[in-house]
Amino acid sequence: MAAQRKFLITAVACVAATVALAGCGGSDDGGKAKSSDGKGSSSSKRTAASTPDKAADALAGLSAEEIAKKAYSATKGAGTALANGTEVTDGDTTKMAISVTNGGGGQCTGTMYSPKGAPAEIVGIGKATYMKGSDAFWTEMGGGEDGGAMLKMLKGKWMKTGADSSGDEDDFCSLASLLSHLKVNETAGVTKGADAEVDGKKAVTLVKKSGAETRTYYVAAEGQPYFLKVETKGGKEPNSYTLTDFGKPVTATLPPASQVVDLDKLAG
């Protein structure tokens, strides 16, 4: 598994491989589980709280790299954030809305959408991440004949994927991992672009080009200099994420063991 997870796509692929190799394994009976906030995909509808900083423009006179460092420090210091994003992996486009925090070893809650728009709830603490897909989600992600087998194994259940040995920064459910995934700490060589707006908020743009890939960082020009958006165009894995809800509490509630299918045990 790559050091920067592709937001559970790899875990889903592992389940599909497990189904294809081992057939459909059973699990304990369970009922309907709730997400950490009990609202399923409502995370994607939340809007950012506006807490303007009264200080004068803190970015005036700074170089592009200095702005990037300041933005990284502010965003990481917020402790929590909501990421709404679209990402292309192996030609397939997936969407995600996920709230993350470094608190409690890293916690997250949100919703992921398959290339055809089928939803799956996500909740996790630390290195343990759980996903509960809709029937359409598991059928689609299983693909072909394996889709039915995957649905049979996971229908109404939470798929669990556990510890990854790549290090703390690879914990899926943490703000640190999100920022690493968005490469906001890899801004050496950025240059200033044209001023812009993100959801009505003024932003300074920082641009970094690498071969066919162009990554643009949008930094709030007023208030705290948070990263408001990161967008990558060109290259093999284009993506676009907006960040809001900085500092808002995130509390994950894990599903009961009776409602969980442990991917690590199945693969073992």
Rg over alpha carbons: 19 Å
Kindly report how far apart the N and C termini lie: 16 Å
* Number of E-state strands: 13
Low-pLDDT ranges: 1-7, 21-56, 164-170
Structural category is: alpha+beta
Shape: globular
The major beta sheet can be summarized as: 13 strands, mixed
The helicity comes to: 10-25%
Strand content: 25-35%
Query: Please, what is the average pLDDT?
Result: 79
- Count of helix runs: 6
Order of helices and strands: HHEEEEEHHEHEEEEEEEH
Overview features:
268 residues; 13-stranded mixed sheet; globular
Verbal overview:
By secondary structure, the chain is an alpha+beta fold. Helix content is 22%, strand content 31%. It has 6 helices and 13 strands. Strands 1, 2, 3, 4, 5, 6, 7, 8, 9, 10, 11, 12 and 13 form a 13-stranded mixed sheet that branches. Helix 1 crosses helix 4 and helix 3 packs antiparallel against helix 4. The N terminus is likely disordered.
